[in-house]
Amino acid sequence: MPxxxxxxxIPCPVIGMLHVPALPGAPGFSGNLDGIRAxxxxxxxxxAAGGVHGLMLENFGDTPFYPAAVPAITVxxxxxxxxxxxxxxxxxxxxxxxxxxxxxxxxxxxAVGADFIRVNVLVxxxxxxxxxxxxxxxxxxxxxxxxxxxxxxxxxxxxxxxAVPLAARPLIDEAVxxxxxxGADGLIVTGKATGTTTDVDELRAVQEAVKPAPVLVxxxxxxxxxxxMAASADGLIVGTSLKRDGDVSQPIDVRRVAALVExxxxxxxxx
Length: 271
Known about the structure:
Radius of gyration: 17 Å
Strand content: 15-25%
Strand order of the largest sheet: 10-9-7-4-3-2-1-11
């Protein structure tokens, strides 16, 4: 089952990441807002030209991340950038507010007409480098209803990268809870860290447990394994491998995007 109606005819949509450089208030902020906007829009243009089916905007450069609520200045600038992306590229757009500010992500999506959000910890509790990350479902689902924003879909990580559960729970138990009790519209399975390969066996097990909810791969996809991942996934979220030389600090390379999209399409074509 596709996450969005726009993807109903696409067997495995590819969502390209827009990694936003450090914003005002973050230690790494360059002071050049025009440069940040130009870099984000250039990446959006390259991803669209390469054939991705959606985009996800993320405050990737704002390390060290807040564990929950981000400052108002971050919300304001992410909203401004998201609106610029929406004007610039006609693709479904998602918002992720690191590390786990689900309400802010929903607010930005609501303001700019984005289509979905990513929530790193929707249910359960995790220990991460930010400290304790706690499930956001109880507030997020009520806020989405109160804002009349139920059209905005929620993608939730399970056993999210760069973190470990406070209590050892089986992956499948958390996946089922995220959908059946937490209200996730789709799930994301990742490796242990940004850019690391996702376990295909775990992916398939989660799919079986929560179907018909879509399950996406959230890390480690590249042109070499994209076909194999696409054969098992309902969607792919890709960032690092699409950058120049596979370096997360570099701009998007449109040739890498096109090669991955073609590998995914080939893997899902009927025989």
